[in-house]
Amino acid sequence: MRKRIMGLFTVFAVGILGLAGIGVATALRATTNNSVVDPHDSLIPETEQARKTADATTRNITLVAAPTTVLIGGRTVSTWAFNGQVPGPEIRAQVGDVVRAEVVNDLPEPLTVHWHGIAIRNDMDGVPQLNQEAIAPGARFVYEFVVSHEGSYFYHSHVGVQLDRGLYGPLTITSKSTTGPRDIPILLDDWTDGVGRTPDQQLAQLQSGSTGAGSPNSGQTGMSGMHHGSMIHGGMSGAANASQPLGADTVDIDYPMYLINGRSSADPAVIDAAPGEQVRLRLINAAASTPFRIAASGGAMTVVASDGYELHALPAKTLVIGMGERYDVLVRAPRTGSMSLVAQVEGKRASVSAMLRAPKVGSQSTMEPPADLTQDPVSLGDLHANPESSLPVRPADQTFDVTLNGAMMGYEWGIAAPSVGGVSIPVREGQRIRMKVTNNTMMWHPVHLHGHTFQVVNLNHDGPRKDTIAIAPMDSITIEFDADNPGQWMLHCHNIYHAESGMMTTFNYLK
Ligand SMILES: [Cu+2]
Question: Residue 268 Cα, ligand 1 centroid: separation in angstroms?
Answer without folding.
Answer: 29
